[in-house]
Design goal:
Helices cover 22% and strands 15% of the residues. This is SMHD1 protein.
Length: 209
């Protein structure tokens, strides 16, 4: 890597956890992305890219939400799809000690790209590993196992109450990816963990598939 003998450096995960002798076997796995830095809190000079590999068929992601939405007995399924996206923000902001801010914006400025629905919240944010897990089909935020890191770590499912700001409003339970591909052709998630200086972005596109 072109490191001279008198230089010091650290190796970290994309979540800025330093690799040490104690955690090496737990954190360093096949396919994991690592940073080589001068210090744990070093600013990244350029944006980094990480390719996510998983094997579901194209139709699994793009069409898997269709049945649930179209089987809604004549009801307009669009609110259910939006509820699925808002549900992610409710989970992300569930541990906020201050104001929980969730905004829904409809974007139609063609100079900024194709029309889009943007859901913006001030939740805890996701690491690159958590975004990676979000992309994997049927990897429930409540049933993470082994090396998987929940996209809403520490989230506790609330007691059953009418669907509101204090509960899960997910109607079909098919997840945000299926809701996205019911509404549009691609998903773009931008997130900054509250404890990190790095901003992480994930793009899933029907065109790319």
């Amino acid at each position: 890597f072109g490191i001279s003998s008198n230089e010091t450096f650290v190796i970290t995960t994309t979540n800025r956890t330093e690799i040490t002798e104690d955690n090496f076997s737990k954190l360093v796995q096949d396919g994991v992305t690592l940073y080589l830095l001068q210090s744990v809190d070093q600013m990244l000079l350029l944006a980094t890219k990480e390719r996510i590999d998983f094997l579901p068929h194209y139709d699994t992601l793009v069409k898997s939400g269709m049945y649930e939405y179209y089987a809604s007995e004549g009801q307009n399924p669009l609110p259910f799809a939006l509820a699925e996206l808002i549900d992610n923000s409710l989970s992300a902001t569930s541990q906020n000690t201050g104001i929980r801010s969730i905004q829904i914006k409809l974007l139609f400025d063609e100079s900024q790209g194709k029309p889009a629905v943007a859901v913006i919240d001030n939740g805890s944010g996701m690491t690159s590993k958590q975004l990676n897990n979000w992309a994997v089909y049927r990897l429930s935020k409540f049933t993470r196992q082994g090396d998987f890191e929940s996209d809403h770590s520490g989230y506790v499912r609330p007691l059953p109450v009418p669907r509101s700001l204090n509960s899960d409003i997910s109607y079909f339970g098919v997840g945000g990816k299926q809701a996205v591909f019911f509404v549009g052709q691609s998903a773009r998630m931008i997130s900054k963990p509250a404890t990190s200086q790095d901003v992480h972005e994930l793009v899933l596109s029907k065109e790319d598939f």
